[in-house]
Amino acid sequence: MYYKLLFFNSLMIGTLIAISSYSWMGMWMGLEINLLSMIPLISDNKNMMASEAALKYFIIQTMASTLLLFSIIMMSMKFMYQMNLITYFNLIFNTSLFIKMGAAPFHFWFPEMMEGLNWLNAIIMLTWQKLSPMVLLTYSNTTSMYLILTIMFSMMISGIMGLNQTSLRKIMAYSSINHIGWMISSIMLIEIVWFYYFIIYCIITINISIMFMKLNVFHINQLYISMNYHILLKLFFALNFMSLGGLPPFLGFFPKWLTIQTLIQSNMYSIAFIMILMTLMTLFFYLRITFSILLLSKAVLTFYTQPKINTNYIMAFNFITLLSLIFVTLMFNFL
Amino acid sequence: MSICLIYFVTFLFFSVLSFLLSLNFMILDYSLMLEYEMLSINSCSIIMTILLDWMSLLFMSFVLFISSMVIYYSEEYMEGDIYLHRFIMLVSMFVLSMMLLIISPNLISILLGWDGLGLVSYCLVIYYQNIKSYNAGMITALTNRIGDVALLMAIAWMMNFGGFNYIFYIDVYKNSMEMYIIILLIMLAAMTKSAQIPFSSWLPAAMAAPTPVSSLVHSSTLVTAGVYLLIRFNFALTSNLMLILLFIGTMTMFMAGMGANFEFDLKKIIALSTLSQLGLMISILALGEYQLAFFHLLTHALFKALLFMCAGCMIHSLSNCQDIRYMGGLIKVMPLTCTYFMISNLALCGLPFLSGFYSKDLILEVLSMSYLNIYIYVIFFFSTGLTVCYTFRLIYYVLVGNFCFYSLSKINDNSKIMLQGMSGLIFLVIVGGSMLMWLMFPTPYFICLPFTMKIMALIVSFFGAWFGFELSKFTLNDSLKSFYLLNSSLFFSSMWNMPYISTFGLNYYPIKLGSKLYKTIDQGWSEYYGSQNLYSKISNTSVFLQFMFNNNYKIFMLLIMMWVIFMILYI
Q1: Which of A21, B77, B216, B511 could potentially form a cystine with A26 if both were Cys, beta carbons 3.0 to 4.6 Å apart?
Q2: Which residues cross the membrane (chain B) (predicted)?
Q3: In chain A, how many domains are there?
């Protein structure tokens, strides 16, 4: 399994190349490196689901890369003197990036693929793999109707589809689609807001997913048993979901706050309204998970021993991140 | 030393003290007013005022005396009750509220006592925790609440005058529109507290309270609070209001006297008799004789408290049976209690030289002297006859005749503490009337009447006694006379349908509307356009989209390609 170490490094390097390259070709190249090193990380010869996920990921990302390359080449051609032609290729470019990050009308591969991953890969997919397409999106930034449509689709699809899921990986996938919508809206206006959003989103998602990974749960019903042996962890888990939903005393409120304020300052009231409204559905299924865990009477099995796991560092990290809203708010003055 | 004894001694001491003070104040024609200014907002000062004159001190001494006797009495009546302490505390709170009401000539501090009375009487009515008590308590509390609100509104109106000491403004009441409204509201409050006609239904319902409570609260003190308030305000009543009050008072008197003739619950009969006497007080007050109203208030408090205590003694012995049809011949088994019962009953009827005689006879004669119409005259005397009528009916059912309770019963006159408590009152029931008349009226009323009018009270009393005996006489093979006129009996026995008016009559349509609204709006349209339908729409959409997105990988990729090609075609 040592090859995974290699590919993990090249995954990082690919993203870094993509986001720090000066030319479109370099960016494409970085994305390709990133893609090709993700495949071996996903694949697992003992698990058919993982292989299927790897294949799906490969196909869709290849298609996106193709489109990306196509639009890059077309944009750099000499006959592109008319602005409206550039707009069309820009749309194709953005399409390819949306496919890569899994934004809503092009999201269909994402939850299906997530279903085949283990939690570590899921963390990578939910966080790191979003980075390069988003940074590339900031470079091709146009406040177009296309972006707004994508935001609205992301909001609606994530809220509606997430309601019906029992698989935690799919729920996390739809939650990520929702946050992609928010992040695109912040990219559209101020990039630094996107930066904060992305960092905080990554922190919260990693926190939650690490808990899932440690407890080895993949579906909602498994939470009822697993969490009961770690009461304090259960509390932190619930608070993390509230943070992810953007409830005020927690950290997750901060990026939403910034985004909403940015949107309102740019006179985009209706899109802000729609986003807030649609996020309520996401919040609903978050709370459905947490409330049922917190409030239902717990069943502790006498002769069942949960493997002892070390939760100390998870708790410490959670404690800091959950309650750091004030500090982040203060810090924002100095950054 | 039990809690009952402690409070008995305390109250008795203060009763004697305030009685002596009252005598002193009366001799000196002296009154004392203490003011403590709490705060002053917008040139409107909020003041805690205490007014001590012979009237308030005398009333206070009577209330304290009766309550001390009742508390002493309840040591045996409430024996074995695990919440006895709470009971005594509640009664003491009640006495405290009553004191506040009596001594304050200030609307805000009156409200303090007034609300205290309402709350404590609610707590006392629901003391036995069952559905009946709960309903009775609710109707008591809510009816009294109307009066509280009226008083609050009067306070709000009084802010125009920059102070709440009504006693200073009593002269201007008749001249100012605002004061007219205030006095109207005060009248409303007094009517609710004294259970005058539209608000009468709570008084018989409040008999769900323990009997000592009925004795103290619902006969002698709480219900007279309204009368006392009106006595304090009597100079402010304009002639129109006086006429309204007179009409309402006489109607209440007549209604309650009629109702008592059809009632079979021992305590309810006495409650209706209380209501009748309250009507009498209100109506003589409305004739302008506030001193007579106060006189009757005091004597009535004495004999009615004793009457209730005797009734409680009987109920206690008859293992909580209150129906007078089960009683009968009690004079043989409880002679002393029945003697007391008889004395207080006769005092109620106005038998000469018992305490009721002095006030009642004086009221009737003053009425005869006045120049009011024949309706008022007739209804006054008819109600006096009715009083004697239901009293003799009660005597017929309870004291004489055959013993109608279970064969195995333990009825005796050995309840020592209760008898002691009653004996404390019997002296005053006998001599209280003459004593008070000598005290309160240094110059006697001048009565000049023709012979027939003079003995009219006696005549109606005799006729009342006779009818009371005849109408309630029942034998084995004959039904009651009242059954021949069943519908009118039902009407009169149910207080002219007043309980229905103040319960179902009030809430029938709102509750019906509420159920309609609940069905159509809450469970209907707002669910349809709101939560449930929205939720089902969203989850149906979710299911549909789930179906669409499930394993259609190829199609989706095709769609993306079509989108790209579509875009290229536009170039």
Answers
A1: A21
A2: 5-27, 47-71, 83-102, 108-128, 149-168, 180-203, 215-235, 241-262, 269-288, 294-318, 330-354, 374-396, 417-438, 444-469, 490-509, 553-570
A3: 1
